[in-house]
């Protein structure tokens, strides 16, 4: 399957291990990633806060670039960042809802010969895994089931709210996909209080205390629920939960040390890749529990991995 | 008639006993509401169950509770749909969050919600000179605030505000939406003072973490978070209010960053949000983040070259878009609450459904039921 791939900014900036692990996992899954390298930042909600039309135009441009790739064989647009998914879906909602508005935005793009056509399919890797590849197929491909690994899903905000904008309904329980996926990969889902809450990243420069308290609490809740690690579909959540974890520890006044994995890293582990190949050594909180787990099972089934 | 099991959280602070769950079975039609269930329980089974209600028609805002963990109006939630979200077939009903419980499902709205509403001067302050007869306002300029005027003060958004959960002083979604109701009203004469006040308050408009919970919670479509973003936009763009919470600087640093680089260049964002790398205000913030940055460097998460250089430049057409939009005489905003959604026939709208995997992207298989 070929997809127009939008990696986002953070996956190529402060969390390069996300982009890297995605590339490795895509190869195993037979996913051809056509990178939208001329596209710009989705605005992460901040550009829309500054000027809605600006955010809508920039994302319409990204959609138009993706649609050009779809003309030549890509099935849909894929992203690997919840914040991109949420911010882009918000712009898409306006663009798709109102044709005079869409025409107005397109008139700005016309100079470069770009046009956004209503109804692009833009899916986070998580959605693509469940809806396009399918959980059964993923189960079939698991080389190293995550047996006994206790994984706490951290959904964050942008990929689960508002439910109608994100197409969450009884047929598409996208707010349960991380749960379903962890199980399909053979792991144990750990439910904890913070799994649908905000990581605090958006206010890190405005209210540090609020921001770090949020991160620290969720990590603490996950520890109290005996999770070995968390997994998140959002690199911005990863920044607050992993990069800032030492600071969050101070604010909440308890040691944390909770490893946080990016979604493709967790998938990659189960597909047989090694923690180091997946860039886990780049995390601020060493994923010791995960590495120990992987070495303890590798002895048994690591040799069965297809070359 | 079908039976429904309601699991109610019982608590009376004055007894000293801990909160407990109690199950009740009610016999009602599927289209009847959770409130109907609660009232039947109170009438027929246990007169001591505490619940507040009045209109039973989603107008008065008194019956806010958490149903299966999420805030709703009890009178506006069908038993059948509550059963659908219950997971295990038992409908749980709890008091709203972020407010002290007075008894069972009744929370102290005065202690939290109304106090915060009062905080934002929730009345019109006449712009001078006061006309001899009525103010004449173009209808168009009032349309924008109809959304915030739809609030029924139920507190559902306050219940689940994630910022308030860690910072109880946060003014919060309902009160900030109310503030916008006056900031967006052309008859009000205190726009700059209101905005400055809310921007400067460390628990004001810049304390919202943009978590969407209030949008999801509101039974009236007020979308408080969107009103907060409007407050920020107007404070920053129309009044140039430079607050002490870095809200203004963060927004501007972010926008400039994307204009320059096309992609977000995080290494510049933090210092720029505090006024630039060499600004005295940036120093304590940078020193505070130093452990994290040093660790990131040590783990080769970021290389020094990447932290200091600019690996990516915005394509020219991105720069041009910034210029074109910034030069418009008026900011353009599309509020779907006001305009509604066009009902075009072609079933192209596909955020909800899986694609068939074979198309060029324009013929997705399903139409989202929410579209
Ligand atoms: S978006 Fe802001 S106001 Fe709304 S619930 Fe979240 S933190 Fe609170
Ligand atoms: S904004 Fe909505 S949820 Fe909040 S108090 Fe008003 S009506 Fe209730
Ligand atoms: S009883 Fe009035 S809103 Fe529910």
Structural features, described:
The complex is a heterodimer of chains A (307) and B (371). Chain A has 307 residues and is α/β, with parallel strands linked by helices. Chain A contains 13 helices and eight strands. Chain A has helices at 16-29, 46-50, 52-71, 82-97, 99-109, 125-133, 135-141, 177-184, 208-224, 235-243, 245-252, 263-270, 288-301, and strands spanning 2-6, 32-35, 76-79, 122-124, 150-153, 188-189, 229-232, 260-262. Chain A has a four-stranded parallel beta sheet, with helices on both faces. In chain A, α8 links the parallel β5 (150-153) and β6 (188-189). In chain A, α1 (16-29) packs across α12 (263-270), α3 packs across α4 (82-97) and α3 crosses α5 (99-109). The two termini of chain A are 21 Å apart. Chain B has 371 residues and is of the alpha+beta class. Chain B folds into three domains: 3-107, Ubiquitin-like (UB roll); 110-233, Orthogonal Bundle (Fumarate Reductase Iron-sulfur Protein, Chain B, domain 2); 247-327, no CATH class. In chain B, 39% of the residues lie in helices and 9% in strands. Chain B contains 17 helices and seven strands. Chain B has helices at residues 34-44, 79-84, 110-119, 139-143, 146-149, 156-159, 162-166, 173-183, 191-200, 213-217, 224-238, 247-261, 266-273, 282-298, 304-308, 316-326, 336-339, and strands spanning 3-10, 20-27, 64-67, 70-73, 90-94, 101-103, 106-107. Chain B is globular. Chain B starts with a strand and ends in a 32-residue tail after the last helix. At the A-B interface, α2, α3, α4, α5 and α9 of A face α7, α10, α11, α12 and α13 of B. The structure holds iron/sulfur cluster (2 copies) and FE2/S2 (inorganic) cluster. The site of FE2/S2 (inorganic) cluster (FES) has 12 residues of chain B, from loops. Residues 161-163, 173, 208-214, 224-225, 228 of chain B line the site of one iron/sulfur cluster.
